[in-house]
């Protein structure tokens, strides 16, 4: 029986590829207005045909071909769960200028140095421009091949000729297929290009890395099917004012999705940062008021960052300025301090920031923010060598946070002498506190913010602190 085909009218979103049988003004998937237009959809009924390979018991399937190989970049291997898997399709997305091309050029060079042929295809730059960056970052090697192409058929021809073990396409939105309607970067073009490259990766056992653009709200541009086609989706992020970069796994068929890689971008390229804590903790010659060190979790990695607070003179229109911390959580912490620790902060200018461009959005950093604010208000330093971790409730209670043993172990490894943490439920019989030792560090379990302020000597009715020595 011949394959039966039938055309029926349908409507497709030009932003994300969502389809519907009737026209609507707003896309039901990406919520974009005016992006749904009529398109022809071909439906087919296909009979059984020849198979590529016979089905075998799962225990007889060889796994040697899918063994991960190191990329030469330790932090990338950490995020991927061991390294680059042959035949894997990886999508790397990030904002313009964050360092995606620099990172992948370093990965390509490291792979070439291990005597594995690598092909770097660029559609955004000329080959000469990429060569200039390779000279600057010492990424030139005989096993690293480079080509500038924007046509899909030419890209496939390059793959046939070079036969690489690693393929980098920068970027998938710049490659177009001549026999597909639309411009490069459109829904139809991205679908066809990505599907063809993934098929090539699977059939030729080539590790393929696709660079993807992002929209203004940080999501990957193009149809959502792109994320379903690939095996791994990575997000490369960082502040343009900081050289620090984070690589996160959003989807990973070969490893964990809660792992984070740390990098530092410089004039000589990009390098992995195995211990990033030093970037976010300032080493003061003398203790200063308004500082406290917090411990946040980036994936499964504990990371220490210093929080700084400044409480300025009372003003008619008080300002609240934050950098690196959630402004709404800072406002909540200030309200709790005013209600339960008798610190009058509503008339003062308040400034709260992190050191080194760190971003702290975890509730576990509430306690460090509270200590920094109280220290700045009183004009007195917090105890030297103290670190704080805990969530602050609206009733003034301190709540437990996840992965507390890992946080304490990291703080002890870096030489901190004291740690303030929330008391476990039922561990105290009253408003007091308990003490214990963890890896040579004294851990103080505190039940509420009032007990913490009394412990640190930050209790009292203060509207603004006088300068020290007055």
From TrEMBL:
Where the record annotates domain RecA family profile, the positions are 65-214
Asked if Transferase is a keyword of the record, the answer is no
InterPro entries tied to this protein:
AAA+_ATPase, DNA_repair_RadA, P-loop_NTPase, RecA_ATP-bd, Ribosomal_Su5_D2-typ_SF, Ribsml_uS5_D2-typ_fold_subgr, Rubredoxin_2
Pfam families given in the database record: AAA_25 (PF13481), ChlI (PF13541), Zn_ribbon_LapB (PF18073)
Q: Which SMART domains match?
A: AAA
UniProt keyword Zinc present = yes
Q: Where does ATP bind?
A: 94-101
Span(s) of short sequence motif RadA KNRFG motif = 251-255
Q: Which UniProt keywords apply?
A: ATP-binding, DNA damage, DNA repair, DNA-binding, Hydrolase, Metal-binding, Nucleotide-binding, Stress response, Zinc, Zinc-finger
Region annotation (Lon-protease-like) maps to 349-470
Function (record text): Plays a role in repairing double-strand DNA breaks, probably involving stabilizing or processing branched DNA or blocked replication forks.
> What protein family does this chain belong to?
Belongs to the RecA family. RadA subfamily.
Q: Present the record's domain note.
A: The middle region has homology to RecA with ATPase motifs including the RadA KNRFG motif, while the C-terminus is homologous to Lon protease.
Protein name, as recorded: DNA repair protein RadA
**Source organism of the structure:** Nocardioides dubius
């Amino acid at each position: 029986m011949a394959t039966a085909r039938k055309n029926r009218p349908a409507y497709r979103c030009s932003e994300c590829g969502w389809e519907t049988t009737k026209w609507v003004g707003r896309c039901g998937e990406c919520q974009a207005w005016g992006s749904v237009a009529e398109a022809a959809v071909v439906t087919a009924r296909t009979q059984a045909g020849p198979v590529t390979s016979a089905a075998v018991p799962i225990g007889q399937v060889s796994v040697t071909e899918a063994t991960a190989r190191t990329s030469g970049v330790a932090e990338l291997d950490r995020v991927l769960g061991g390294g680059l898997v042959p035949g894997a399709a990886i999508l790397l997305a990030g904002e313009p200028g964050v360092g995606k091309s620099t990172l992948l050029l370093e990965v390509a060079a490291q792979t070439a140095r291990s005597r594995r042929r690598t092909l770097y295809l660029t559609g955004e730059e000329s080959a000469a421009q990429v060569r200039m960056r390779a000279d600057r970052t010492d990424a030139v090697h005989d096993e690293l091949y480079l080509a500038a192409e924007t046509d899909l058929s030419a890209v496939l021809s390059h793959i046939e000729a070079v036969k690489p073990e690693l393929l980098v396409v920068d970027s998938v939105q710049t490659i177009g297929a001549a026999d597909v309607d639309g411009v490069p970067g459109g829904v139809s073009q991205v679908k066809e290009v990505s599907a063809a490259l993934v098929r090539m990766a699977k059939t030729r056992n080539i590790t393929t890395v696709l660079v993807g653009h992002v929209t203004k709200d940080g999501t990957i541009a193009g149809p959502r099917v792109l994320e379903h086609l690939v095996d791994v989706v990575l997000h490369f992020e960082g502040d343009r004012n900081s050289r620090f970069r984070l690589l996160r796994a959003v989807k990973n068929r070969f490893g964990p999705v809660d792992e984070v890689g740390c990098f530092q971008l410089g004039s000589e390229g990009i390098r992995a940062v195995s211990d990033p804590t030093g970037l976010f903790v300032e080493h003061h010659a003398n203790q200063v008021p308004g500082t406290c060190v917090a411990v946040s979790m980036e994936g499964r990695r504990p990371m220490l960052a210093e929080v700084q607070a400044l409480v300025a003179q009372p003003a008619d229109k008080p300002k609240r300025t934050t950098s690196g911390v959630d402004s709404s959580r800072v406002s909540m912490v200030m309200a709790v301090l005013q209600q339960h620790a008798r610190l009058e902060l509503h008339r003062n200018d308040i400034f709260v920031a992190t050191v080194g461009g760190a971003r702290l959005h975890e509730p576990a950093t509430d306690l460090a923010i509270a200590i920094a604010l109280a220290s700045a208000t009183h004009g007195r330093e917090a105890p030297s060598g103290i670190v704080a971790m805990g969530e602050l409730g609206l009733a003034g209670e301190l709540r437990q946070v996840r992965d507390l043993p890992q946080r304490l172990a990291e703080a002890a490894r870096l030489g901190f002498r004291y740690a303030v943490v929330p008391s476990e439920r039922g561990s105290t019989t009253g408003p007091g506190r308990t003490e214990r030792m963890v890896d040579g560090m004294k851990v103080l379990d505190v039940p509420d913010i009032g007990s913490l302020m009394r412990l640190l000597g930050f209790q009292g009715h203060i509207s603004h602190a006088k300068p020290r020595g007055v």
